[in-house]
Amino acid sequence: MGIEFTVDTDNSFIETVPDGTPAGQVPVILSRGKSHGFHRPLLPDELLITADTVVILPDGKEGVIFGKPKDRNDALSMLHALSGRTHEVITAVCLRTLDLEYCFTDSTKVHFAALSDSEAEYYTDKFRPFDKAGAYGIQEWIGHIGIEWIDGSYNNVVGFPTQKLWKALQERFSCISLRRAS
What we know:
Distance between the termini: 20 Å
Number of helices: 6
Helix content: 25-40%
Order of helices and strands: HEEHEEHHEHH
Strand content: 15-25%
Strand order of the largest sheet: 2-1-3-4-5
Shape: globular
CATH topology: Maf protein
């Protein structure tokens, strides 16, 4: 996007949510928690951007939330549950300065083809998706062979809704301007 930034993962926030929290609110709570759990005070003119992504598989009233898998068996269990079904990927982003906080979400529906045991095992063993909500990266092999369709932002499923971020930076923070080369 042409924006200079620094990644800082030093955060004291422990990712927990109150029991009974609606599934769609979980990433908002986690994204805000990461923002307010930042390890130092913000500097003047500093913009902190935090995000969290969850995968929600419809099941009853609320749905089952898939975060990052704990291990190989957890990843395989998630992939088998997603196989042949449609799920929702929700990412919440929190933008914060000393004077302003703005959080937003993006939601994308994703439909997996039926995955064989060998496909799920191959993907898990080769790509080790233990840092990915729902145990998969749409941009990786599993996305190429397993995703039949999506309704919404591809970048949201990757883990960060870049188009909505761009719009928020322009409209809420006035920190994006495009200049023509002279």
